[in-house]
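Ops channel
N.P.: pipeline sanity check, posting one input/output pair.
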C-alpha cells in the first residue's frame, strides 16, 4: 500500500506544521516555536510547501494559533508512531478527529473527484486540522503507521513521512543524514589511528 496524493498532502502538511511550529532541535540547533507574525508566516509556508504552491494561503493569527496547538498534538502522534506506541498515537488522533469533527467529502478538482476531509466549521485552521487528523488516521489504521518518523540524527527531533519505496528512511533531511554519515566516518578514522 502507498499513500494517495491527497493523503500525502495532508501528511506532508502535518509534518511541516509540526516541524515549523513546535520547539525542539534541528541538525544540532535549537528550534524555538514562532509567535505572532512569525507564526502566521510559518503556517502559510508550511501549507504552501505541502501543496507545492509558491503562493501561500491567507492565514490569520487565529488560524496560526489554532494550528500551532494542533501541531503540538500531532508531534505526539509522530513520536508515538515512531516508538511503536500505537495506542497513544491512535488515542491522540481520535481526539483530534472528534474535536475537528472531520467529515469525508468528495470535492471536484481538475483531476476529477477526490476524497477530502473537512471540519464542521470550514475555517482554514479547522479544515487543515481535520485533514491532517484524517491523514494520520489513515496511516495509523493501515500498514503505513511505520512511515511516520522522527529523525534519528543526534540533536534533531524533526518529523517526517517516509515515502521511500523500502520504508527505511531514518532522517528528516539529507543534511541530517550527511551529518550522521560524516560523524561515523570520522569515528572510524579515529579508531584506525
Amino acid at each position: 500500500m502507498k499513500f494517495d496524493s491527497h493523503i500525502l498532502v495532508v501528511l506532508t502538511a502535518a509534518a511541516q506544521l509540526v516541524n515549523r511550529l513546535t520547539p525542539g532541535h534541528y541538525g544540532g540547533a535549537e528550534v524555538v516555536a514562532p509567535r505572532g507574525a512569525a507564526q502566521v508566516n510559518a503556517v502559510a509556508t508550511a501549507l504552501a510547501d505541502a501543496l507545492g504552491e509558491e503562493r501561500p494561503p491567507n492565514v490569520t493569527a487565529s488560524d496560526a494559533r489554532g494550528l500551532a496547538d494542533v501541531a503540538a498534538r500531532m508531534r505526539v502522534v509522530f513520536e508515538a508512531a515512531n516508538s511503536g506506541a500505537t495506542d497513544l498515537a491512535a488515542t491522540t488522533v481520535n481526539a483530534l478527529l472528534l474535536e475537528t469533527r472531520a467529515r469525508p467529502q468528495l470535492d471536484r478538482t481538475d483531476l476529477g473527484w477526490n476524497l477530502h476531509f473537512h471540519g464542521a466549521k470550514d475555517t482554514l485552521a479547522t479544515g487543515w486540522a481535520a485533514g491532517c487528523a484524517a491523514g494520520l488516521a489513515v496511516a495509523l489504521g493501515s500498514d503505513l503507521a511505520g512511515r511516520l518518523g522522527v529523525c534519528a540524527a543526534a540533536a534533531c527531533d524533526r518529523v517526517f513521512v517516509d515515502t521511500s519505496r523500502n520504508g527505511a528512511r531514518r532522517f528528516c533531511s539529507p543534511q541530517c543524514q550527511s551529518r550522521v554519515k560524516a560523524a561515523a566516518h570520522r569515528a572510524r578514522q579515529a579508531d584506525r589511528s
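N.P.: looks fine end to end. The mean pLDDT is 92.
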